[in-house]
Structures are given as C-alpha cells and as structure tokens.
Amino acid sequence: MVQNNRSANNPIGRRQNFALLLLLLAMVLGGCGKGISVPSTVPVSGVVTYKGKPLQGIRVTLHAEGETAKPQFIPTGQTGPDGKFKLSTGAPGNGAPPGSYLVTFEKPEIGSPASTGFVETEIDAFGGKFSDPAQSKWTITIERGENSLQPFELN
Q: What is the pTM of this model?
C-alpha cells in the first residue's frame, strides 16, 4: 500500500502544504504592485465651509492640472466635524505631491434602494455641483514643505 505524505493528518504533509501556501503567497504578493510606488508627498491641510460654518463629511479631491493619463494616486481627504481635512495620497495623512491642482468636493451619502434601482449606492448630496474638475473654480499649487490651504467656501 502506498502512503500519501500530503494527507492532512500527516505532519510531513501539513508542512509541505504550508510551504506550498507560503510560496504561492510570496509569488502573488511579489507580483502585486510592480512598478507602483507612492509618490513623494508634502503635508496638506485645509478647511471647507458653507456660509462661514464648517462642513462635515465632505470629500476633497485634487486633480492634477494638465494630466492626460489617469494618475495612479489621487490626493483626497475627508472633513471632520470642524470642517478640517488632511490629504492622503496612497498612505493615510501623507499629503500630496507638489504641483498644480483643480479641487473638487463631494458629500457622499448612501442612496436608498428605492431611489437607486434597488441597490444601495453612494451618491453625491450636492448633485455633482462641485465634483467636475472641468467646472471647478478652485485651483491650488502645492509647494514643498507644509501646506495649509486657504478655506474653501462652498455656496
């Protein structure tokens, strides 16, 4: 009778299975993200207001001016109760790469299944009023060093 060393009850078989699993995991992780690295960033913070009052839950997004190809990393931030945000680009709170940007704003909410075709979907409570980079009236330049942006007043 031939015995299979790879059975689940055989310690040698378990070690072989574990070694194969580790090898497969290393191959998968080694192949993920090839050629992609987080860009060099600088700290960026700001505040979003409406009629002088801070707005909570606003997604702030920077769109590189003159960018023809879709960038791998897009600087974004979310306002807190005080309307303040810090931008992140590929890592939490790391800021944004220096450069010129168009700024857009969205207030993400979950649409009810009845209003979105029976599926919960994220919608913009502003109805897209501030989310189109081509229509944005806000442009900024991120410089090397710490960047504290002028307040963004939505109206």
A: 0.71
Same-domain pairing of 26 and 66: no
48 Cβ neighbours under 8 A, 6+ residues apart? 54, 55, 58, 60, 79, 83, 85, 105, 151, 152, 154
The strands making up 59-64's β-sheet, listed across from edge to edge, are 76-78, 59-64, 99-106, 139-142
Range of the domain at 81: 44-154
Are 68 and 13 part of one and the same domain? Answer: no
pLDDT tens column, 39-88: 899 999 999 999 999 999 999 999 999 766 666 789 999 999 999 999 99
Pairing verdict, β 84-86 and 108-111: unpaired
